[in-house]
């Protein structure tokens, strides 16, 4: 059996019926302060061993109600005593080992989970005239209401990434239920790229292109950016807001765009 210690969780006993092995597995994050990490189960014997209280084992074991298990534990403690692995208080010495890192999560499983997170759809846009740029984004969220702040996550390989993140001012145009075509256009799915996708429905507001027909639009100044994995997390402070017509929200769920319309 082994006791597993992980941050923010109660100690867990694994393999309770295996009396031939006994150790304490500690998440690497907790290895710097083993005395605190192991306090719930015993005291440190030296740098690499803990004196584990038998009571703690009984409290953690899913088999503690089983008479056979209790006898097995007594036998294990008796054998440990013969080897000198118990102390005067009857505590059992256990070796501390770092818990192996989690196996990597399969990218397919991650994508599958994220597809099930229903979100709205926006076009993030920046620049002026022939230098306008924009891309469809569902990774958009509110960060703070006072002051009003938002964030978007932009793939660094997207053609518009450098233009938006370098602009200083950008807009987030929240698409309405009927704007699937706009979403596809700015996702590069209609064979058109660059500034020629901005038609007369795009206005210049406070230094960024704003889609007049969007459900709502926010103009933001870039407050911070942070490279994370393949994306840049761009945090913006909202300096202007515009509301358009409310015909419901365009939703991104399970790999498809859907119309979210409800009676008000
Ligand atoms: C519904 C939907 C949501 C998207 N969300 C994001 C997103 O949050 N972040 C991102 O970087 N790309 C997102 N994309 C992909 C970009 O829109 C797309 O890769 C990019 O704009 C392609 O443009 P480009 O041809 O200018 O590179 C999304 C695409 C769709 C269809």
- CATH homologous superfamily identity of the largest domain: Electron Transport, Fmn-binding Protein, Chain A
Question: Which structural category do the helix and sheet elements fall into?
Answer: alpha+beta
CATH architecture of the largest domain: Roll
Please report the first level of CATH classification, the CATH class of the largest domain.
Answer: Mainly Beta
Task: Characterise this structure.
The chain is elongated, with a radius of gyration of 29 Å. It has six helices and 18 strands. The chain folds into two domains: 97 residues, no CATH class; 154 residues, Electron Transport, Fmn-binding Protein, Chain A (Pnp Oxidase, Chain A), CATH 2.30.110.10. It has 264 residues and is α+β, with helices and mostly antiparallel strands. 18% of the residues lie in helices and 38% in strands. It has a seven-stranded antiparallel β-sheet. Strands 2-1-3-6-5-4 form a six-stranded mixed β-sheet. The structure holds flavin mononucleotide. Flavin mononucleotide binds next to strand 9 and strand 11.
Outline of the structure:
This protein is 18% helix and 38% strand.
Pick out its properties:
alpha+beta, 7-stranded antiparallel β-sheet, 2 domains, Pnp Oxidase, Chain A, 264 residues
List the helices and strands and how they pair.
Layout: E1 2-5, E2 12-14, E3 23-26, H1 34-37, E4 42-46, E5 49-52, H2 54-60, H3 67-82, E6 92-98, H4 107-115, E7 119-120, E8 122-126, E9 133-137, E10 140-144, E11 149-155, H5 161-165, E12 169-174, H6 180-185, E13 202-205, E14 208-211, E15 216-228, E16 231-243, E17 249-253, E18 256-260
Parallel strand pairs: 1-3, 3-6
Antiparallel strand pairs: 1-2, 4-5, 5-6, 7-17, 8-9, 8-12, 10-11, 11-16, 12-15, 13-14, 15-16, 17-18
The structure holds flavin mononucleotide.
The site of flavin mononucleotide has 17 residues, from strand 9 and strand 11.
